[in-house]
């Protein structure tokens, strides 16, 4: 059955079908016999059932199916990323064992859909990898055959944006790495990318270890991590270097929102972007103007608007568009590729789209929520219903927003989709029952993203199945540099795939979903396009409506830096835009003598340092104000001085009465 030899990396060369992808096929399994007895013992209790959310399925949901066949055991290991698996905070990071009865799977008669083409082909899977693809395959004995006639076979979805068990206000997002990834698999998503997001002042490396410790023992599917940069210092810069070099991180998220919590200032943002560029990572931003939101939300409370609608009203979409534009501008100055997480509004989407047309390297990620529903729910009379939609940035009240975002996604202006899955139950949302500012931000999506995008994108005729694959998996794999290991059906790729029935329908409901949360923002939506069979890392996890997941079986997938899809033209662009010194002959004429006089006049005029900053022309020889000097600044208070204007300190002169002012007297009939 399972090959006892390590899975060797196929050589990948430039100009091959996929081009070179560093480490995409790194060794993933060890020979039998390398596992310790301790690991064998620990593996058994990990086999878990999933009866909770769907009691009607209970009788069929056996632990991992295929019991009693006693097949050879394969050990899958988490790639060595240098993380200590012995740390006390990490309860269970051991490699997991699963039965390999399912390790040989033959999928017959389906239509394979990749992002660039689709074709009829059979697929043979062994040891978690696609081994053969085509027709008239010669299949070894003992393979399980799945009939896929009339169905599509697509790469498993990659959700680029989740927050499983995110700590928030003393509580945690209620879907953890177990229920969250279980739900993902149920909906046809076979990989998530979650965010490491710790407090200001916490080492990014320590935060990373903490998240690995939470995720590794619980994940039912493969996962990767982005790391949030919630503060800035030279230390943080070094931590980014370490995480990129040793820990498999190639994406860092910065916040322009959440003032005093996660927000970076523009100069810090610039430094963070520079660092990302230096290490070959992609910078991500949560783009909203945190200063404005802080002010506007106070205004709402003062006006007595304390309900969930206040959350939307204090964050008009211009606040998102402005921050999106600002992030793009700053990233461009740093020549750093940028990824805008959760594009929620038409105006922000337009900013991304037009920046791309100007040549900026920027990617836009609408999410299931912004593509599938809108902000009119914030006005719902039911507090729980309205609060259930609270997320940042908010859903937009303009009901044409989802369709508009889908148009841009279908046509390449936006590239990739996530969910921002971050779920809180009614009692957790109720922390903000009297003040919308305290409602935990977040909605569901990880389970329903694939169906919602199919329904709103493909079923409406806006995108074809290839584009659906591009925006649900392939582009994510390319951006985060795990392509074609993920995001493609090809020989050598991971066997993460979904048999998709475009004609089947299902109705989304919190009553039947697999997530832990008690609410679903897509409640009642009928979706065409259903994941009928889901295979993750070669294991059949969903078949005949039955979900068979194994807690802790998912692997951490390192994301290497310098993704070609992202960085391919950065060097060329930098070179083309390099500042050029103009070579000219030195000026040989006379230069006015000012050094001594200037010093004298300065003291004579009692110009203090702050005032100096205001002057763009020196004082006159007699120490007076140069009349060419601007008397005001657009920068206003607080930029260079504590005063509004440079001469605020001068005595105020009462008004002068002018009997006959220029232009004539103001008394008259008009
Ligand atoms: Zn998020």
From TrEMBL:
UniProt feature, compositional bias: Basic and acidic residues: 54-64, 605-614, 641-651
A GO MF term: metal ion binding
Cofactor: Zn(2+)
Region Disordered, annotated ranges: 24-76, 600-670
CDD domains associated with the record: D-HYD
Catalytic activity: 5,6-dihydrouracil + H2O = 3-(carbamoylamino)propanoate + H(+)
Amino acid composition bias (Polar residues), ranges on this chain: 623-633
SUPFAM superfamilies associated with the record: Composite domain of metallo-dependent hydrolases, Metallo-dependent hydrolases
Alphabetized Pfam families for the sequence: Amidohydro_1
Enzymatic class: hydrolase
Matches recorded under InterPro entries: Amidohydro-rel (IPR006680), Hydantoinase/dihydroPyrase (IPR011778), Metal-dep_hydrolase_composite (IPR011059), Metal_Hydrolase (IPR032466), Metallo-dep_Hydrolases_sf (IPR050378)
N6-carboxylysine carried by residues: 253
PTM (free text): Carbamylation allows a single lysine to coordinate two divalent metal cations.
Gene3D superfamilies (alphabetical): Metal-dependent hydrolases, Urease, subunit C, domain 1
Any Gene Ontology biological process: pyrimidine nucleobase catabolic process
Protein name per UniProt: dihydropyrimidinase
Source organism of this protein record: Lingula anatina
Gene that this sequence comes from: LOC106151691
